[in-house]
Structures are given as structure tokens and as C-alpha cells.
Amino acid sequence: MSNDATYHGPAEVITTHEVHHDEHHVHHHNETFITKYVFSQDHKMIAKQFIVTGIVWAIIGGLFSVLFRLQLGFPNVDFPILETFFGRWAKGGHIQPEFYYALITMHGTVLVFFVLTAGLSGTFANLLIPLQIGARDMASPFLNMLSYWFFFTASIVMVSSLFIQTGPASGGARPRRR
Length: 178
Description:
3% strand
């Protein structure tokens, strides 16, 4: 650090050491783990939340795909583990037709709405747009944070509907019985 003098008006001369010393007395808000990582209003952290959540939903959607393709690939094989997880929707280790349709529907919905739409565009919009336009953050950081939490809550509610009796496997198009 040098003590070069800086001219500030006709009667005031402040050295650079004094200027830097005064900057250290500004009170900064101490962030906790919750405010920094969970309920963050920083656009970069929100982008990370979107991408991590999108990756998790991509894995879940891929597992749905594996389940219904397992039924297609091995139609005469029993998978007792399926009955353990899905109960009446996989009696005897075979996926019931209603549950099969529900898996296909949920697979498509998860991949389109939670991976492609919200996961990827939420990630890149939050990360790149403020950087491209030279802004420090999004225009409304609180609403930006809420957008992620609404996305997360909606995805949990939708996927949890798969495991209730009146969920997607109980309604919609009915398979034809032969």
C-alpha cells in the first residue's frame, strides 16, 4: 500500500491508506447456510439450484423410462421387487396397464416440464442473462428465488401424486381389455 495523496476538493487531502481503511468499516450482512444456499437471492446460486434439481428430475424421469421399458422388454418375466415398491400397481411383479400409462405420462411430463423447460432454461436464464447485459443480479432477486421454490414445490407435488390411490394411474385414458 502506498500513501499517495488523493485530491478531494480545495481543502481536503486524503491518503489512499485512509480511503481503504474507511471501506473496511462498512457493515456487511453475514450470510448463514440457509440464506446463502437454500433461500439465496443470488442469480448464480439460483441457477445452480435449477441445474441440480433438473439433473435429479432427469434421473427420476430416466428411472420411469427404465420401469416401463423393463415391462416391454421382458413381458413374461416376474419382477417381485416391483410389487414391493408399487403395491397394487404391480401385482405379481407385473406392471398393471393403468400404472404403465401413468409411468409414461409422468416420464414425459417430468422430462419436458422439469428438465427441459424449468431445469435448463431456468439455469441458463438465471446464470447467463445478467452476465450478458452487465447487471450485478436479476431485477427482482426475491421473485427470482420464489420462481425456483414454486418450481421445486410443483415438481414434488406432481411426482408424489404417482403414489396415491387417486393419482395419474387411476384416471385418464383406460387401456382396452381384450
